[in-house]
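Work Package 3 committed the consortium to producing structural models of liganded targets before the mid-term review. Because experimental data for this complex are still outstanding, the team generated a predictive model from sequence and the ligand definition alone, so that downstream docking and mutagenesis planning could proceed in parallel. The input record is reproduced below exactly as it was submitted to the modelling pipeline, together with the SMILES string for zinc ion.
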Amino acid sequence: MGPDVPVHFTRFHPDYQLLNLPPTPVATLERAYNMAMSKGMHYPYVGNVAGHPGNHTYCPKCKKVVIERQGFFVTQMNIKNGRCKFCRQKIAGVWASRV
Ligand SMILES: [Zn+2]
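The resulting structure, written out as tokens with the ligand in place, is given here.
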């Protein structure tokens, strides 16, 4: 695995037969996220925490948001021809030709 492999740290939410367990503390997810970033991972994510900045994809070079998400929706796309719209850094992934 290399630094371009996405890594998701998804919050456990107690439901159904696991109501006795607490949700994952957001601080735990943030610690894992920050650890991944500090080790050079380009695309870590915090999942299942609505509105968290860790839901977005950031350019590994200029650190600007290249894909902004709200829940399951993409609200902003700053990738053009597979590159960051701001600094032209290649963003790992397979992109539709129009983005
Ligand atoms: Zn950039």
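Reviewers should note the following from the model. Residues 62 and 87 are 7 Å apart (CA to CA). These observations will guide the Year 2 experiments.
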